[in-house]
Amino acid sequence: MSASPRFPAEWESQSAVLIAWPHEGTDWADDLAAVESTYVALAAAIARFQTVLVCVADAALRRRAADLLAAAGVDPARVRWFEVAYDDTWLRDSGPITLREGEGFRVLDFEFTAWGGKFAAGEDDQLVARLHAAGLLRGERERVDFALEGGGIETDGAGTLLSTWRCLHERHPDLDRATVTATLRDSLRQQRVLWLEHGYLEGDDTDAHIDTLARFAAPDAIVFQACDDPQDPHHAELQAMAAEIAALRTADGRPYRLFPLPWAQPIREGGRRLAASYANFLIVNGAVLMPAYGDAADAAAAAVIAAAFPGREVVAIDCRALIRQNGSLHCVTMQLPEGALA
């Protein structure tokens, strides 16, 4: 009998991280040079530890991206390429969610609606199927007719899922909590779902994705975005979220070890505030890549993440260009578990 599928935690061994290179046909068109610099830094950091699988729209974009990575000293042996159409580059939300199934894998392909129909999503909703059809992803592809983004869920790898009710309710306003909980539990093969009622960031158009707010660092540890400024409009909401997280219990009934992240000073552009969360980090083999914002709190955030992930190097990536489009580092990446990349 084959083993039941299991949703691995992000800190488990990985084969690659998937990204999509920005180009003039994406939302990055007006700020392409700055965001390409961020992508070069991100790809270079990933390639220090493992393979980076780069989606490109065409051969010309592949040549451009390859030249930029070569100029940055990135080992070409650590880079793989895939030419495919995509609407935008938020692969945390349009990319594959991979379950381990015995010695193999099951690739979940949820419906991607661009955060509830806010943007075009026709190409992005086909991305997982195209990656799988090209033979890049090992295992059976399972289409799930339920709108869900990878940034909206966190797993501890041991059967506990963490999410925000605000996000899932926005996606499925006609479904009650019991139905949404059962769908997540069954499709992602989880034993329980923990819901947060509070938490949001101005400038975030995902309806409070959990990966901007709170992240598992171990089955008994949660890193979360705190706010210690009583004058900040986020203060009451994030204090309420912190209290909720403190009240959560592990599967065996213990309080979680908690790692509150510092609060960056507001970053505003064009009359709006941008969503600068330190919780939007990416775990890779041997390291945690952390979004940095040119703020005095960057160093303190790195120290918290280092404490939460002992033995891993913390690598800061300047993400000020990314938050101009309402996301950050974790949002533009999707890890593939060890062995899942064909």
From TrEMBL:
Q: What is this protein called?
A: Agmatine deiminase
Enumerate the GO terms in the molecular function aspect. agmatine deiminase activity; protein-arginine deiminase activity
> Per UniProt, what is one Pfam family of this protein?
PAD_porph
Check the record and name the InterPro entries matching this protein: Peptidyl-Arg-deiminase_porph
Swiss-Prot/TrEMBL keywords: Hydrolase
Which domain of life does the protein's organism represent? Answer: Bacteria
Is this entry keyworded Cytoplasm? no
Report the SUPFAM superfamilies cross-referenced here: Pentein
As given in the record, the signal peptide range reads: none
Example GO biological process: putrescine biosynthetic process
Ranges in coiled-coil conformation: none
